[in-house]
Design goal:
heterotetramer, A alpha/beta (199), B alpha/beta (335), C alpha/beta (541), D alpha/beta (417), B: alpha/beta, eight-stranded mixed sheet, 8 strands, globular, D: 417 residues, alpha/beta, Rossmann fold, seven-stranded mixed sheet, 16 strands
Chain lengths: 199, 335, 541, 417
């Protein structure tokens, strides 16, 4: 079982990210489960979504309390919400930011994780460039694939195309591809404090 | 009003139910021996029930207008209770009762079902009393209007909750005594409120057809039912139906009291299409509201002892305003 | 369909619930006597023929009239229509113009040559009618329809009596009168003109009459004593009118006084204008309000330029000067002399003071009682002498053509019973339908149609009929203004307004029945019946 | 076809395959995605010959469904929470009239305090309305139950409520096999009503019934539900034969045959329970689970068999019958005549409180150890309620309890600032 928790703000696509991830997992034959933990929050409020991937049927429906990976769509949440709570010692952290982990002030925390398990990705910048709107999901999921190696880029692309038809889908795929490329360039798996820079 | 055919030269014009001098095709439905009797004998309405009469009038007219292809949704209330105590039904139409507040919505559902089943010939009427229409059923009614569902809603307005023993509804007129607005204190009877004119509210929805009618003018009522069935979409017909029990008038005077309501201007009779008033029934022999009020014991406190001329004047003012507002007295007619 | 228990019911099943048991009062259909019928001296069923007429059944309507009155065309013209005085419609707008519809029907019958036949086989009995005036003609007509042989002896040269000698042509054209008399003779009645009965007993014996109806009328003019210098200047009304009828041109002069205030005075005054008088002045001892002449006659006379001198009596004449005494009304409305006199110049004076009966031929008939110059009759119109009946102006009654027609009908019925040796019992009368019994809401506002009239200038130059007839649409309109007081006219109101569908409509002409199984006795049918033909009666407990 | 999609979307597509003729919709979280999905199907033409009525309230939604169903159309609506209470009168009416309407309930709590998250209070509140109530364990079952629901309801002329946990199922993306139209058509024939408002054969429906016949009407409704106890397994078997998978039925057992302890639950919590059962079995504990799919009619006989030789039964209940405890356990005792079985009522997950494996395991252990109270509340924050109870003991006017508790939980300031 691989469990991902995604933190963001209402309107940033947190739930969609979990759904996309579950679709990508499904594409690869996994059993996948995406559950939002949202309710009456409005645009801007902190929200969380979960995604589980497994080799066999997922029966449990409890919220993910000890994630294997955490995606943080908005770095401003770092100091408001306990985003890393329950993160397994071998877990992954991916943050949407054009700044570095140190610059974000969490260098010390991520140092406890295995090498290459934490990264920043300027996903919003990529989205603005490719999609024209601040929707960082595609790039972030590509980034998650890149740092975890759990899913193939093609699965993410397929999920994106399933969810977003036509031009919008392709633009998101383009954003995802560039994110992959960025991680390939800096070889994040080698460095614990990788920082994908825009090329 | 373009209204029913107004025949000259007849001893009874077209005010009576029948007129053997008219061509058969323009005689009233009620004069026809083979009328449907949509509400049949043996029902348990009180003696002189205006609602029973109004319902038969309206549904018989509708049955003729749509060639018998009619289904009816009925709200809870007197009309439903007195017509269908198990194991007997007085209805001679396809008829469904669901709840007090939902006749309009049930009508919507039936209309949708008929549409989807391709039964385009079948038309839908929803009906209820004033309580089930202007109070508890108002939300469903407004929803039906707003969606312009293909339903004619008929409200039989007897101005209070008669089924439960004459309690005030929002259709109860000012100063009327009911079981919940007793004739005691400084403000006897029902309050002089803002009123709740559902026909005007219906018009505000911009629906194809809205009309008021009264059991005292059968031909006008039949004309309006027939006209309403000529439209598709949401339609509303508000029929004044006196209740001898609740109003405290003689059982034989049901139509007489209804007539005085119309002739005094207290119950304006008009019709409207797409939110615009298109016709009104002119008052024929205008009477002061006193004539109407004095017939009914629910207003007896206004005339007891030295009487309550101030309140009677306020009621007269309501009638006068109706007459002005709806143009009920034609120019040059005796006032 | 297997219907869910108690949730789904068959339609119309409430018929098993007989709600009639709730009733404490029951409606019943009644027939009340229409005030017009009640007022008609001829006993016409006016409402019934109006009912038939309003549907356009003119012949049936006419036949309904002639059941009672053989001369609708004449009566429609000359009857003073008391029916209209009592018409309930008058309280709504104006009375139904019954006479004009009657006239329309009568004229139509003449135009279409509608005939009547005896209703009964011949009885072989023979009745003598003395006098071919309205009463005699009426009796003869009815007796003939009853199967009897009738012979009328008429002393004068024409049949018609006062219809011919008392009523000017401009009110009753003679072709109309002749046509209606001809219909009676066509029925088999023999009229022997210029046949004066001198000795009734002898006539009856010799001709083997089984019964006799006396209807000689009142043809002797009443005279007032007026000392006159020139008796030729004073003549009586009947003399004048009879002269006109005979084609004479009586010399009245330019200025004519007519003394009297009855309808005959009006007839004379108006005839005088037509005969060339430039001034016709009615001299009457009381006021217009007290004048016995009908208002419409006075009005028409005024329109034609007839003048009136109220509160005046003529005392004497000398050389064309008439001495007139002024009168005043006392507390009881009776004229009293004042002793003030004035003089009126006139070329002639016509006395229209009423008529007396010429009873000379009865002087030898035993058993008759004569009081105040008229023959007494019983309720069966029989005189004190068995088998001798009398009617019209010669018996104590109002002297109108219609009363006379009624007498004829009534006498005929008793004579028929007499001949058949049975008893005739008149049908009991229903209570009269009052205005208060009506629900007038249902009647359309419809004032009476005005009959066309010749303009005054044309009238006074000739004896053309003054008042025109209605055309068909007007006649229909008038017929349909009838309120049908007290009698169901099948307006369907009861059928329609019953909240319990407890009224059974039986079909055209068959009226309605109550279904007491379901009638709860609310009384709405009774309240909403326009004509007051439903009465609520308490249920017996 | 296997798909990874949201539960609501899957259900919407399944409903579409059932060819409903009239759909009435009023939005309420968490049911919205279902009716939105159906709206799209109708609008796009994918679901042809269907009237989609946007009504002004849940009461109207059920009323339109009543009218449509009575007039012979296959009618569907969906609601949740306050919505089902707002339509409650009409829910009873549809039940009483025996109109085979199918309604999805996206289960959610009922306020006050207002709360949008999942529990079963809403469905439970209408458990006696004369409807069949089926609870879906996962989204695949939610899809399958809807298809069976139309068949079941129309066969019996009874309305059917398909309950699926709000958010947990409605908003969850899962793997779902959406059947083909042909498959559904083979299983579900066109609607043939038992009573219908039709001018060509007019009847009076909805008469007033007095004391002389009301009992019988109610009994007949009861008898229909009892008939459903036979029909539900039959349909599940036919469904398996036609669609190739187990779905529905009255109850389903999980490792319960030899279990000394059996955990009973409704809906999605059964998945979590199964995981815990597996864990505890691994530890050698004879524990099993029974999932109740049909809560109405209540499968008394089936449960009696399934609960077999268990010594203790633990019901995990997502609703609280305030003042006594649990509805499920209360009903369940009817299946256990003359037995010494201990029945534990565990009220859990109210208002969306997560039901975690850890907590469940703890409470099961406590039952095994004989330490569990007959009625207990899973993960209840005892100090908080004790503090509030203490406040109320001391002071008459403590202010709103919910606010006080939030203050205790230290979450109120965050919400305020």
């Amino acid at each position: 079982m691989f469990e991902v928790r995604i933190h963001g703000r209402g309107g940033q696509g947190v739930v969609t990210a979990a759904e996309l991830l579950s679709i990508a997992g499904f594409e690869e034959g996994f059993w996948a489960q995406a559950i939002p933990s949202f309710g009456s929050e409005r645009m801007g409020a902190p929200v969380v979504a979960f995604c589980r991937l497994n080799e066999c049927e997922i029966r449990s429906r409890e919220p993910i309390t000890s994630p294997d990976a955490v995606i943080i769509q908005d770095p401003t949440l770092l100091h408001q919400v306990k985003v890393f709570e329950g993160l397994s010692p071998g877990g992954y952290v991916l943050i949407n930011s054009s700044r570095s982990l140190d610059q974000l002030g969490i260098g010390e925390f991520v140092d406890k994780l295995p090498r290459g398990h934490a990264a920043c990705l300027p996903a919003t910048e990529l989205a603005l460039r490719h999609v024209g709107r601040p929707v960082p999901n595609a790039a972030l999921l590509a980034g998650l694939c890149a740092i975890t190696g759990r899913l193939k880029p093609a699965s993410i692309e397929a999920a994106i195309r399933r969810k977003f038809k036509g031009e919008v889908g392709e633009k998101n795929v383009a954003a995802a591809r560039e994110a992959f490329a960025m991680f390939a360039n800096v070889e994040v798996k080698e460095g614990a404090r990788a920082h994908a820079q825009a090329v | 009003m373009s209204g029913p055919q107004r025949v000259k030269f007849y001893q009874t014009g077209t005010f009576t139910v029948g007129n053997r001098l008219l061509d058969v095709s323009v005689r009233s439905v009620q004069s026809d021996r083979s009328r449907n009797n949509s509400l049949n004998s043996g029902h348990r309405a009180c003696q002189g029930c205006g609602e029973a009469l109004g319902a038969r009038y309206a549904l018989d007219a509708a049955m003729r207008a749509v060639n018998g292809k009619l289904v009816v949704a009925n709200a809870t209330g007197c009309l439903e209770v007195f017509s269908t105590p198990y194991p007997e039904s007085s209805w001679r139409v396809a008829w469904l009762h669901s709840l007090f507040a939902n006749a309009a919505a049930v009508g919507t559902g039936m209309a949708a079902a008929m549409r989807v089943k391709g039964r385009h010939d079948v038309r839908v009427i929803a009906q209820g009393g004033d309580g089930g229409t202007v109070d508890i059923g108002f939300a469903c009614l407004s929803g039906m209007f707003e969606r312009n569902d293909d339903v004619l809603y008929i409200c039989y307005d007897n101005e209070a909750y008669m089924n439960t023993g004459v309690q005030r509804s929002s259709a109860t007129p000012a100063a009327a005594r009911t079981a919940t607005t007793p004739a005691v204190g400084d403000q006897p009877g029902n309050v002089f409120g803002q009123g709740k004119n559902v026909p005007l509210i219906a018009m505000a929805h911009g629906i194809p057809y809205v009309a008021t009618a009264s059991v005292c003018d059968l031909r006008d009522l039949e004309y309006k039912v027939e006209k309403a069935m000529g439209f598709h979409g949401a339609r509303y017909l508000h029929v004044h139906v006196p209740c001898p029990l609740g109003w405290g008038c003689d059982t034989g005077d049901t139509l007489k009291v209804a007539r005085l309501a119309a002739e005094s201007g207290l119950f304006p009779i008009f019709e409207a299409e797409y939110g615009e008033i298109t016709g009104r029934r002119a008052i024929r022999k205008r009477v002061p509201v006193d004539d109407y009020l004095r017939m009914q014991s629910r207003f007896a406190h206004l005339f007891k002892g030295r009487g309550d001329p101030a309140r009677v004047a306020m009621i007269q003012a309501i009638a006068d305003r109706n007459i002005r507002r709806f143009g009920l007295v034609s120019e040059g007619a005796p006032a | 369909m297997n219907k869910p228990f108690a949730i789904t019911l068959d339609v119309g099943t409430s018929l098993v619930n007989k709600t009639g048991s709730w009733r404490t009062e029951r409606p019943v259909y009644v027939d009340r006597l229409p005030p017009c019928n009640n007022a008609c001296p001829a006993g016409e069923n006016i409402q019934q023929w109006l009912y038939l007429a309003e549907e356009g059944n003119y012949e049936q309507a006419w036949r309904e009239i002639v059941k009672h009155n053989p001369m609708p065309a004449c009566m429609g013209r000359v009857c003073y229509h008391p029916c209209e005085d009592f018409c309930n419609r008058a309280r709504l707008d104006t009375a139904v113009s019954i006479h004009s519809v009657e006239r329309f029907l009568g004229d139509l019958a003449i135009r279409n040559n509608w005939r009547v036949k005896p209703d009964a086989p011949s009885t072989g009995r023979h009745v003598l009618v003395v006098g071919a005036g309205p009463s005699g003609l009426s009796a003869a007509y009815h007796l003939a329809r009853m199967g009897h042989r009738v012979t009328i002896y008429e002393a004068g040269p024409w049949a018609g009596g006062m219809m011919r000698f008392g009523i000017p042509k401009y009110r009753l054209p003679r072709d109309v009168l002749d046509a209606e008399i001809r219909r009676i003779t066509d029925l088999g009645v023999t009229i022997k003109l210029n046949h004066k009965v001198a000795d009734l007993d002898q006539t009856m014996r010799s001709e083997k009459f089984d019964a006799v109806f006396l209807a000689v009328g009142a043809h002797l003019a009443k005279r007032a004593y007026i000392p006159a210098g020139d008796a030729g200047k004073i003549l009586d009304a009947l003399q004048l009118l009879r002269g006109v009828e005979a084609g004479d041109q009586p010399l009245l002069g330019r200025r004519v006084l007519i003394y009297g205030g009855g309808n005959t005075a009006m007839d004379v005054a108006r005839s005088a204008k037509r005969l060339g008088a430039s001034e016709a002045i009615v001299v009457y001892r009381r006021t217009r309000e007290k004048m016995p002449a009908h208002d419409f006659e006075v009005r028409e006379a005024e329109e034609e330029g007839v003048m009136f001198k109220w509160l005046s009596t003529i005392k004497a004449e000398s050389e064309g000067k008439f001495t007139v005494e002024k009168m005043k009304l006392d507390d009881k409305g009776k004229p009293q002399p004042t002793g003030e006199f004035e003089t009126m110049e006139a070329d002639s004076c016509v006395l229209a003071l009423g008529q007396d009966v010429d009873l000379s031929f009865l002087s030898r008939v035993t058993g008759l009682t004569i009081t105040d110059g008229v023959v007494e009759v019983g309720p069966d119109m029989m005189t004190g002498r068995r088998g001798v009946f009398a009617g019209g102006d010669m018996v104590p009654a109002e002297r109108t053509v219609t009363v006379a027609i009624g007498h004829g009908k009534k006498a005929a019925r008793y004579i028929d019973a007499f001949l058949r040796d049975t008893t005739y019992t008149p049908a009991s009368k229903h209570e009269v339908a009052k205005f208060e019994n009506l629900n007038t809401w249902y009647y359309t506002d419809a004032p009476a149609t005005v009959q066309p009239a010749l303009d005054a200038a044309r009238r006074i130059s000739n004896f053309e009929e003054v008042v025109g007839g209605l055309d068909e649409s007007n006649a229909l309109f008038e017929a349909r203004r009838c309120l049908s007081c007290g009698n169901c006219f099948e307006c369907d109101n009861c059928f329609g307004v019953c909240p319990d569908n407890a009224v059974i409509k039986l079909g055209p002409g068959k009226r309605f029945e109550f279904n007491y199984d379901y009638c709860k006795g609310c009384g709405m049918c009774s309240t909403e019946c326009p004509c007051g033909a439903i009465r609520m009666e308490p249920e017996t407990i | 076809m296997l798909r990874q999609c949201e539960g609501s979307q899957a259900v919407a597509e399944a409903i579409g395959l059932c060819r409903p003729q009239v759909i009435c919709a009023y939005p309420i979280t968490p049911q919205t995605h279902i009716v939105e999905g159906l709206g799209a199907l109708v609008k796009s033409g994918a679901l042809a010959n269907c009237e989609y009525i946007n009504v002004e309230s849940e009461f109207a939604a059920m009323s339109v469904a009543i009218g449509a169903s009575a007039a012979g159309a296959r009618a569907y609506t969906a609601t949740a929470s306050q919505g089902i209470l707002y339509m409650a009168e009409a829910v009873y009416n549809a039940g009483g009239l025996g109109l085979p309407i199918v309604m999805t309930v996206g289960n959610r709590s009922i306020g006050a305090p207002i709360n949008i998250w999942n529990d079963h209070t809403d469905s439970m509140a209408l458990r006696d309305a004369g409807w069949i109530q089926l609870f879906a364990e996962d989204n695949q079952e939610a899809v399958d139950l809807h298809i069976q629901a139309f068949r079941l309801g129309e066969e019996l002329s009874l309305p059917v409520m398909v309950c699926m946990d709000g958010f947990i199922l409605t908003h969850a993306y899962e793997r779902v096999d959406i059947p083909t139209q042909e498959q559904v058509d083979q299983f579900l024939p066109p609607y043939e009503p038992r009573q219908v408002v039709d001018p060509d054969n007019p009847v009076t429906i909805g008469a007033m019934v007095g004391p002389e016949a009301f009992m019988e009407v109610r009994y007949l409704a009861h008898a229909k539900q009892l008939r459903a106890l036979e029909l539900i397994p039959e349909l599940a078997a036919e469904f398996k034969q036609k669609f190739g998978r187990d779905s529905g039925g009255l109850i389903r057992s999980y490792r319960a045959d030899d279990a000394e302890t059996i955990v009973v639950g409704l809906g999605s919590v059964n998945g979590t329970i199964k995981d815990v059962v597996d864990e505890m079995r691994n530890e050698g504990i004879k524990i099993g689970g029974v999932s109740i799919c049909s809560f109405r009619p209540f499968p008394t006989a089936a449960l009696s068999t399934a609960l077999g030789r268990a010594q203790r039964i633990i019901t995990i209940e997502k609703s609280l019958s305030v003042g006594i405890g649990g509805n499920v356990s209360h009903n369940l005792r009817m299946a256990l005549p003359d037995r010494n079985t201990t029945v534990y009522t565990v009220i859990a997950g109210l208002g969306g409180r997560p039901i975690t494996r850890a907590s469940l395991k703890k409470v099961f252990r406590s039952a095994l150890d004989g330490l569990l109270e007959p009625v207990s509340f899973l993960d209840l924050n005892l100090p908080v309620v004790q503090r509030q109870l203490e406040r109320e003991r001391l002071e008459r006017r403590t202010g709103p309890a919910a606010e006080a508790i939030l203050r205790d939980l230290n979450t109120l300031p965050a919400a305020v600032h």
